[in-house]
Amino acid sequence: MIVDMKNSLYRILCLLVMAASTTTILLAQTPYRTQTFGFEWRSLQVFVEDNPLAPPIITLGEANRIVISLDLLADDVTYLDYKIVHCDANWLPSQLSELEYIDGINYLNADDYAYSANTFAHYVNYRVTLPNENIQFTKSGNYVVLFKPEGSSDIVAQACFSVTERKVDVVAHATSRTDIGYNDRYQQVDVRVAHPYYSIQSPFNDLKVVVSQNGRRDNEVTTSRPLRTMSNEIYFEHNRDLIFDAGNEYRRFENVSVTYPGMNVVGYEYFEPYYHALLYTDYPRCNMSYIFDQTQHGRYVIRESNAEDSNLEADYMAVHFNLATDKIYGGNVYIDGELTNHIYNENSIMTYNEQTQQYENVLLLKQGSYNYMYVFVPDGATRATLNPTEGNYYETINEYVVKVYHRPPGARYDRLIGTTVCYSGK
Fold first, then answer.
1. b/e 90-99 (16+ beta carbons within 10 angstroms → b)
2. Which residues sit opposite 210 in a β-bridge?
3. How many Cβ atoms sit within 10 Å of the Cβ of residue 6?
4. Residue 340 and residue 227 share a domain
5. Sign of CA dihedral 123, 129, 135, 140
6. Strands (E), 150-293
7. Residue 16: inside a domain
């Protein structure tokens, strides 16, 4: 039996009012992130065409494209415009003008949209594919697409992705044999950059190597000092900055049908205007043994089991998360994963219920297969830890994305000259 559904629905509607009043004036002053602004904008996904579980990176000049999908909870369409901004390695606007990184028109309508079908929650699904007949990229690096309602200056969504070149060969390896422990709670990443046909005059000054774990930004590492160079090879090894907490496998649930409970779902009930899905109660895993589970490294896939087109036929559900544990003082617990864009804010925070003695939150999510976990952010910190919630186990299979940027003297942007993906435990 799902408890306090009406209270949870009231909470969702309150978030709508709060989100609608949020200003976006300061967006350009902070690094861009993939996220939406306003309760009605949902399910923002940025992925490689035909490979939705890959990191959002395409190669300059090759036949691969980025797909951006976004929903508007509404009965009718709001016409959207979008603009592309080139960014530096830190996801801030670069010094390049639009004419230098775009071949085409850089202010277009998101005119590929369609209405939901046979769903309780009415929505409009928008899709933008890049590059397209109107826009071609001419420079590598990081990019963000900014979406605004037609005639408005308010940004409603930001979609981040990268465009790389194949100028160097990047080889990375993640191991539990770290400089601070052997098969303990850590994993260390070593990177080798081979550049036999590309000139890097000063590898100790002109390179930036950025390593991220499972798409998270809070613990992303940037290093610019290799350990050594040898001929046409550059080694970033034994770098303590590249030691990560190993974490744990992501938790999973599936709400792909309302006729039967999916993975980790107790059951469903309908309270207008949404179905509610109650997940099984979760418990901390920090004092348990490691258990392998094949996950999507924090991602989610939209899916409705009987749909011909899940993008339009999957419904929205209020999904109830519960973590049964004593209250953890000195910080807050958040839901992490692509379902919250790995952002720790009022949407993803877990509220402690003294009566039930558990952390609780309700997220409005489109039907699909989801990954999630619980992270703890100490007061005053921006980096999350899994110590009190999920634990850290060296066996965990994590996805590490490595990006190598080159900016020689006189250059005006961070050129993304190579990327790779490696997995711990493989």
1. ebeebebeee
2. 222, 403
3. 10
4. no
5. positive
6. 157-164, 169-175, 177-178, 181-182, 186-194, 207-213, 221-223, 228-230, 233-236, 243-245, 251-254, 265-271, 274-279
7. no
Q: Give the residue numbers spanning the domain of 309.
A: 251-378
Instruction: List the one residue out of 328, 78, 41 whose CA is nearest residue 156.
Output: 41
Residue 149 lies in a domain: yes
With residue 180 as reference, give the H or E element that holds it: none
Write down the pLDDT at residue 9. 55
Taking the CB of residue 217, how many other CB atoms lie within 10 A of it?
A: 17
List the alpha helices (DSSP H) in 21-127: 98-101
pLDDT given for residue 28 in this prediction: 47
Which stretch of DSSP H or E encloses residue 59?
A: strand 57-59
- The domain total for the chain is 3
Mean per-residue pLDDT over the chain, rounded: 94
Question: CA-CA distance, 403 to 389, in Å (whole number)?
Answer: 30
Predicted confidence at residue 425, as pLDDT, reads 86
pTM above 0.90, yes or no: yes
State how far the Cα of 184 lies from the Cα of 168, in Å rounded to an integer. 33
Q: What is the pLDDT of residues 250-287, one digit of tens each?
A: 999 999 999 999 999 999 999 999 999 999 999 999 99
Q: Using CA atoms, how far apart are residues 13 and 179, in angstroms rounded to an integer?
A: 49
CATH of the domain at 226: 2.60.40.150
Residue 4 pLDDT grade (very low, low, confident, very high; cuts 50, 70, 90): low
